[in-house]
Amino acid sequence: MHSSPNDASHQGNSAPLKRAMSTRHLVMISLGGAIGTGLFLGSGEVIAQTGPIGAIFSYFLGGVIAYMVMLCLGELAVHMPESGSFGTYATKYIGPGTGYTITWLYWLTWSATLGTEFTAAALLMQEWFPHVSVWLWTLIFAAFVFLMNMSSTRWFAESEFWLALIKVITVVVFIVLGLMAIFGLVSYQGFESAPLFSNLTAQGWFPQGLFPIFATMLIVNFAFSGTELIGVAAGETENPTKNVPKAINTAIWRLLIFFVGTIIVISALLPHQMAGLDANGVSSSPFVTVFNHIGIPYAEDIIRFVIITALLSAANSGLFAASRMMWSLSYKKMLPEVFSRLNRRGVPYVAIIVTMFGALPGLLSEKFAPETIFKNLLGIAAFTMVVVWMSICLSQFNFRRQWYKDGHSAKELGFAAPLFPIVPILGFVFCFITGISMVFDPEMLPGFIGCMIFIVCCYISYYSIYHKKA
Predict the structure, then answer these.
(1) Domains in the chain and their CATH numbers?
(2) N or C, fewer C-beta in 10 Å, the chain?
(3) 323 and 78 in contact (C-beta within 8 Å)?
């Protein structure tokens, strides 16, 4: 029997969705969302463009921006833990049209990425099994992620925990072995003397000048995207007041250590020209090169396996997030009621099925111009993410001003972002600069224009359909 949203007594907006997640699930979901191809493949790209010191600076700045946004989100999520998360906050504190648009944009971010994650994982499997069609692998992976999401929130959180754990362990082992090689505790091919920090400044501090640091900010910010999943999952978390702030702090610090540590190891052990991606897939991942030089057997196979789990874990959390966004739109009567139907395990199954169809453009990328489609989908996902982050900062800024106006103090909040109003303003400005950087990249421009059209369409559809009803 389907409980329509109206049956549930309105205890907050997530009454029908079960609260089944703990802090360890939250932290792993956000790490799982963030540690993906951006780190295993994209990090080399950033180093190649900005040089080692530039890349360390880029990722550090990216982490600081992500932290500011997450502090804003933490304050809102503890005050109102809802599964519609920033869509709901934007509706309340910016305007209903914006809330509607942000919810759709976040849905677009993940459904655009879903298809590319499945395709990329399938292409990796093909390196092992050249005779099996890519389509078959794509279907297998899509089915796996679909089943994990359809089973129950607890199952989803548990599967995400273990998938993400594989990535986290790999990154930790990589950093530890890399540092041992840098300080000469394990032998490293081609180098006699340790420590090996000379590479970091071999070409001067910023070999290509300062501009590439800002040009690569979109890649870097996208690498940190996924942390905001904590906000979406807050509506299905036990004791959000305690668990959400804890998860945000833990997740951001770990990500900064993982990302910056990885970049330091890669840049110290590889000349920066070697860090970028050549055309031969995983074997060109800086992780593989470093493991090979240290002399770890089957390095390529190990990293290929890890990247496949990384892709599946990102798709797993992506489908979760996108379907919850669609559910919340329907729950607020902005989409037909059918989208908020829950099965008896409390899973919004219609929203999950529809989101899977949203992944189709990404699946087509393998057959038609994979490079172009992949680049554009990545650009779209990165840009929509930046807009969502801007809305989080603005929502918190407006929320806090309203809170003070109503005669409350910051001490009364379950969790208050420090240094108000500096944090939301800086977070907003940095995200804005990152988004605009897309205009100057000819490869990203079509994606940027596409997103702008999508945003305009969202506002038009909101004001023409929904506003009339209201």
Answers:
(1) 5-469 (1.20.1740.10)
(2) N
(3) no
